[in-house]
Design brief:
Shape: globular
Largest sheet: 5 strands, mixed
Strand content: 5-15%
């Protein structure tokens, strides 16, 4: 157990003043001031309607441009999720602007990291209009209610204590390639780590619905964690919904760490129960415990280069698994990359080498569970919602076919309110497509489809 605990770092800024700008920020060798980086998400329930969604997207973009803040974000009817960078004062002004615009954001946990090297800044702003914040396939009528969930948020120090408890499991709700370079390692006699080994977040509901998973959770305290907390929100709400509508789980409570791994590592700068790196989706690439030595970090490495097998834990060069229905990032060491080995040898990911696949597993009955809890009128999808689900499934299948053949797929828009069409329209495919690729993709789509990375 780490001796050093920064208790104040464990506290969320929700409902509190934003942290002050630190003094003596370090300029780089060219005299550039460092930047500050902020990660945050905020769900809204009930969801924004179409006009509110559009207004929110426009306001966020306008506010970010006004304060010269860049980065990436997703704006969906269910809320906002962003990773942004800018000058320390500008980042704080942006966060305060959200609070002034909509009181819901007073409850947002803005996770601000100051004194980030200037070269790690975002150079452009991209805020996408999306159906959901994390690609679980749980938008609209499928979304489990956050307001009715009994899952608990724990501050990082309390979460740390719970990892020492017996009769407890801790679920890594991130993708397998993230878990490969770093994860929690509870002490002996404490919580049992469960890794779903997912390629993307669409696979989590399928893993959660498996009988062997439910058996693992039965009678246990269930802990969850992810990078910043957003994936745990829907994941924990889904588990809570499944528990309320079924007798085959029966946990002793559901818990997530407030602020995710990001806040935990600031609370335990020597690492605590964390092992390895925290995979990041920004230009920092990964986060490590600030006071953990390089020697100690090297002893944490459990992952390897997918080509030579050398212990390796850095994702560089954007190498991916060549399997058409996989395409996840893979680890390639600098020596193999510099020697051009990826051009002569396939870079298969560990899941494909193992033959692990969750795509064919059955999904929970999302809508049926909500009808059980709230009544048919509360969550029964409208005709337009049903059509939207059908078009989304068709788009997933077409995109996967295109990925299998190296092309981009496009779905033609259908009528606004009709029974779902059974015809699938695709465009921009090459002149030749292997029939086996098409059969494989369509079979996968029938089993639940593929989605984006969560």
């Amino acid at each position: 157990m780490s001796a050093l605990v920064v208790s104040e770092a464990a506290r969320s800024v929700a409902g509190r003043e934003l942290p002050p700008i630190p003094r003596n920020l370090t300029r780089d060798e060219r005299g550039n001031s460092p930047v500050s980086l902020v990660l945050f998400y905020q769900y809204v329930e009930p969801a924004w309607n179409e006009s509110e969604h559009k207004a929110a997207l426009n306001y966020v973009i306008k506010l970010a441009k006004h304060h010269k803040v860049n980065g990436r974000g997703r704006c969906a009817p269910e809320g906002l999720n962003c990773t942004l960078s800018g000058a320390a004062a500008d980042v704080r002004a942006f966060c305060q602007g959200l609070r002034d615009w909509n009181k819901t954001f007073e409850q947002t946990d803005f996770k601000i990291t100051d004194d980030v090297y200037y070269g790690k800044r975002f150079k452009a702003l991209t805020v996408r209009k999306a159906d959901e914040l994390v690609a679980y396939g749980l938008s609209g009528a499928n979304a489990p209610s956050l307001n009715h969930s009994h899952a608990h948020h724990l501050e990082a120090d309390k979460y740390h204590e719970m990892m020492t408890s017996k009769d407890t499991v801790i679920i890594d709700v991130r993708n397998a390639y993230e878990s490969a370079i770093g994860h929690f390692q509870p002490p002996d006699g404490g919580a049992e780590l469960l890794d779903p080994k997912m390629r993307n977040s669409h696979e989590f509901p399928k893993w959660l619905n498996m009988p062997e998973t439910k058996e693992k959770l039965k009678g246990k305290k269930v802990m969850m964690y992810c990078t910043g907390g957003i994936r745990c929100e829907r994941a924990s709400a889904l588990l809570d919904q499944m528990e309320k509508t079924s007798q085959d789980i029966g946990s002793q409570g559901i818990y997530m760490v407030r602020g995710g791994i990001e806040r935990y590592l600031k609370t335990y700068p020597q690492g605590g129960f964390w092992k390895g790196y925290n995979y990041l989706f920004d230009r920092r690439f990964e986060q490590q415990p600030e006071l953990k030595t390089e020697q100690a970090l090297s002893q944490d490495i459990e992952s390897a280069c997918c080509l030579c097998g050398k212990p390796w834990n850095k994702y560089r060069g954007q190498f991916k698994c060549p399997e058409p229905l996989c395409k996840v990032p893979v680890l390639v060491c600098f020596e193999c990359a510099d020697a051009g080995v990826p051009k002569t040898k396939p870079t298969y990911c560990p899941l494909c080498v193992e033959g692990h696949d969750l795509r064919t597993q059955a999904l929970p009955d999302f809508v049926g569970q909500k009808q059980q809890l709230f009544g048919g009128d509360v969550c029964a999808p409208s005709a337009s919602a049903t059509l939207s689900v059908a078009v989304t499934a068709a788009a997933s299948a077409a995109a996967a076919v295109a990925a299998a053949s190296g092309a981009t797929a496009r779905i033609r828009k259908g009528p606004k309110v009709q029974d779902p069409s059974k015809r699938l329209f695709v465009g921009n495919l090459p002149l030749l497509v292997a029939a086996t690729d098409i059969r494989k993709v369509l079979a996968s789509a029938q089993g639940g489809g593929e989605g984006g990375v969560g």
